[in-house]
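Lab notebook, bench 4. Continuing the backlog of folding jobs that were queued last week. Each job is logged with the same field layout so the records can be merged later without manual cleanup. Today's entry covers 6-phosphogluconate dehydrogenase, decarboxylating, a 479-residue chain. Filled in by technician R.K.

JOB TYPE: sequence-to-structure
TARGET: 6-phosphogluconate dehydrogenase, decarboxylating
LENGTH: 479
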Amino acid sequence: MGSTAQIGVTGLAVMGRNLARNFARNGYTVAVHNRTAARTRALVEEFGGEGDFVATETAEEFVAALERPRRLVVMVKAGEPTDAVIAEFAPLLEPGDMIVDGGNAHFADTRRRERELRERGIHFVGTGVSGGEEGALNGPSIMPGGSAESYEALGPMLERIAARADDGAPCVTHVGPDGAGHFVKMVHNGIEYADMQLIGEAYQLLRDIAGYDPARIADVFRRWNTGRLDSYLIEITAEVLSHVDAATGKPFVDVVQDRAEQKGTGRWTVQTALDLGVPVSGIAEAVFARSLSGHADLRAASRGLPGPTARPLPPERAEAFADRVEQALYASKIVSYTQGFHQIAAASAEYGWGIDAGAVARIWRGGCIIRAAFLDRITAAYEADPGLVSLLSDAEFAREIGRAQDDWRSVVSLAVAEGVPVPGFAAALAYYDGMRADRLPAALTQGQRDYFGAHTYRRTDREGVFHTLWGGDRSEIEG
Ligand code: NBP
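JOB STATUS: finished
OUTPUT FIELD FOLLOWS
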């Protein structure tokens, strides 16, 4: 067999198959391979007419089908399967070849794999791919890490298959070395968790306090989707809320068990943020809210606990309340993105990745699950000031959040008074107030730490490190 394929995809479950079709539909010859060969045959039988596929059954055949330097995309289940596939293919590759891992790998694994393969002269390109199966087929947002050299060889192909933002720019950029791409994908997913939680809280408030039914709430989300909240997640929220269960005739949302599942990227985001010391409280609350929902036994045991039962507002006040919820949702969303971008900046500094935050916002504008008009605004904020310390420091976001805050506070207050849980809205507001506070109780924390553990403290009026002799005459010593 001649080496005719410009790119190869191994792992032909839903994501790999659609990515392979996307490459083929864009004019590339694609070698395809899967551990279980039946999947490879099925792809070519069903979709062979869409472009040029080279079906291969063995690893040797697959590698031999690829032009050099080889570009080999791995779309298998993240974790051990990825290591197994690398162990199988790496010995067949030559220096200069590229392995692109498009799975949801943990960035620390990507760093390890990149290091090991670099020693053998092979480029390992840990790549975030977002947009689910539909995105993989019609244009995902793509977040490749790895060497600049590998991006030269891969970038043009990725730009062809990526989603396009409204201004036509492809939603792909070279994010940075080794684990940078998978890190950014992880934070993308963390922000996705936060967005979904905030939308869920808005839904619950409209249901319990505005007194709207799901169909009416769907209309509210549709209206919001024509404004500054215009986004894929708001759009699909309206679709899900207006869906009626065929079996019962009830709103679909009322026949689904209220226990949210998770695959782990949200949890990784929070774990990593803890290690980096970055307060991603919005994402953390979203992950915890999913965990809380899943504890069915605990919830059943707690159901009778005392507390208010939300009373719907009189109908004439419901609409104004819905408008206030929109303000609270928008302000909280600004905070989650602020936190997510802080985490990316912190990791970039820690690992020396040199990530361009503006470029990340740019490639999230299309293809991915969190795509939104809002990301144009973030892109503009970073373009105006590439060194922006925090999104909240952007004048336009600061103005908007300033305008939203009275409503935001009143929505959180009312939710608390009525017993509707809003951990995302409340955590975002607490972050905002924490950041703008002149003084925090951290001074007292330092005093307590010094009292029980002689951990020392710094003073506001002098340089140096101090300790008070709490058990003695309470004089202060330096050092
Ligand atoms: P899965 O995550 O379900 O993985 C199935 C694929 O992995 C099959 O091709 C399977 O081969 C292969 N595989 C396994 Br499992 N163990 C293997 C091994 N030891 N050696 C070789 N191949 C092995 O597929 P997916 O849902 O298409 O996702 C692929 C990747 O993309 C994952 O990392 C996922 O996290 C990521 N991702 C998914 C989405 C999404 O929306 N689904 C979005 C973004 C990213 P077989 O056919 O022989 O069993």
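OBSERVATION: Residues 11-16, 34-36, 39, 75-78, 81, 84-85, 103-104, 129, 132-133 surround NBP (CB under 6 Å).
SIGNED: R.K.
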